[in-house]
Predict the 3D structure of the following.
Amino acid sequence: MKSLKTIAAGLALALGLSGAAHAGDPLKVGFIYVGPVGDLGWTYQHDQGRKAIEKAYGDKVETTYVESVPEGADAERVMTQMALSGAKLIFATSFGYMDAVQNVAKKFPNVKFEHATGYKRAPNVSTYSARFYEGRAVIGHIAGKMTKTNKIGYIASFPIPEVIRGINAAYLAAKKVNPDVQFKIVWVFTWFDPAKEADAANALIEQGVDVIMQHTDSPAAMTIAEKKGIYAFGQASDMKKFGPNARLTSIIDNWAPYYVQEVKAVMDGTWKSHDTWDGIKAGMVKIGEFSDKIPDDVKKSAQAIIDGIESGKLHPFTGPINKQDGTPWLKAGEVADDGTLAGMNFYVEGIEGKIPQ
Amino acid sequence: MDLSAISPAALIAALIAASTPILLAAIGELVVEKAGVLNLGVEGMMITGAIFGFAATVETGSPWLGLLAAMAGGAILSLIFAVLTQYFLSNQVATGLALTLFGLGFSALVGQGYTGIKPPAFPHLNIAALNDIPFWGRAFLSHDYLVYLSILLVFVVWYYLKYTRSGLILRAVGENHDAAHAIGYNVTRIRLLAVMFGGACAGLGGAYLSLIQVPQWTQGMTAGAGWIALALVVFASWKPWRVVLGAYIFGGVSILQLNLQAVGVNIPVAYLSMAPYIVTIVVLVIMSGDRTSAPASLGRVFHASN
């Protein structure tokens, strides 16, 4: 598939389709994905955003995508090809594309880039991300209430701030309602490898966890949770089909409104480099339907957290919070600032284990 | 940290399950390479087997028919490779790589309607008297049947290559195809059959992932297992039992490191993550000090006119 598209892109180039865009030509928008569009998780949700663009603007836009692009030199090549074949706006949807985006953006100052979950910007590079930690606080709360063994498993991908922030937010929320709760964290160093994710889930279950959270992209852990009769949460996508009994709720990434808005900005010529970090309030992070397995009082308290975050009254990182080594981080009532959250590289007090370096 | 929290029996059981897909694919590729053909399309054949096996199992309700379909899927895909390289004399490396890309895309296409479906459970060895034996029952005697089949398959391949006339001919073709041709063997046909056997085995390995290990269909779900299998054949010096050893060490260390993390062992995770690769390579490299080398005609194009 990938090679076919690459060939297609090359052909387009050879036929001279990449020449200066005429007024009235459709705006070409490119997407590069880290996994397959059929992962039913992270990449799937980004692709839903791409489809939303097509739906919103019809023949005024033309979207292309290349899936399963490794983070690194390949990403640079793919984006260069997209830019050469006339894309005016490119969405790079994985953290590890960060340096590749910077390099390609320098070569094509007239092409706009949008990089998901990164922090390096340029005049033609914007960054955007979602406050997934808000969702993590909600599922952490539910997990803390639902666990019988007081052990919660967490399948983590890479030790980047995004993932660490999620672990901390979930842990704080779980700890608050269940002081005995313990997090067992397994780092798999991949975003997408169903067999490895399944093995990690099995290893955690062997250690007595009865609720699993994941920060990887496939529904493998959900499938294992269903098979073993424990609970899990949908990640990035709803994943209900994979665990009708296991799934408690889900954190759903909703990129579509943002993508539609950014395409409009490019069409209108109002696009400017910016950093967007939206959460539950803006609808970028959604919480899926609650399962019947959750008792009513927990549904209520979880809904209260969602409402609190939405109204701005509640912040998942509100002091007093100490860092893992016991040094104070936030004073009572103090709320974490975005800078610290964006670069979070420490566990909060109570989490066992070390963050891989 | 409490190491006793890891149950050795559970660990062994998980290790065997995690190693089986690579083992199946690798033992097939071993036969292919013994016949002198280098097929880099293992990943593509595995993923094709994964979706064929999954789809057939879901449609018919029979995991056994699913396995047959997986083998057929892998074999048919490998037939494309065999025809291109053996009859049209295309470059084996390039054709193999193309086969992987094709398999990944093709399986995604076939699999469109199959995401989010739960396949029927695959039958396990379920004899109370055996399953209840302490340690042994859980570790070795309660697996799905495909695990036992994979070991049987290794035995058959080993016996075939070492003790049968036909196996000897296959090896001769791999060592020196011109000589084999000169004494009257049909090099092309033998290689064609070997490649199809490899495809069927890779297909089985893929089906193990989608029907047993995960069990679900997700696009691209082999995630590099085929490449591990390919590397394993080389590091195992083209010897069947070393492939088993290599696969189990690789699977074992992968599983062990996940379990060590789960109990909270204080070793930097980066070392744990690279451990499977390093340990497997070190062990097999040390073992291959005995001057075993690749089949002499491996990857070389054969045409009867040369």
Remarks:
- Residues 150 and 221 of chain A are 19 Å apart (CA to CA).
- The radius of gyration of chain A is 21 Å.
- Chain A touches chain B through 47 residues (CB under 8 Å).
- Chain A has two domains: 2-130, 132-254+284-342.
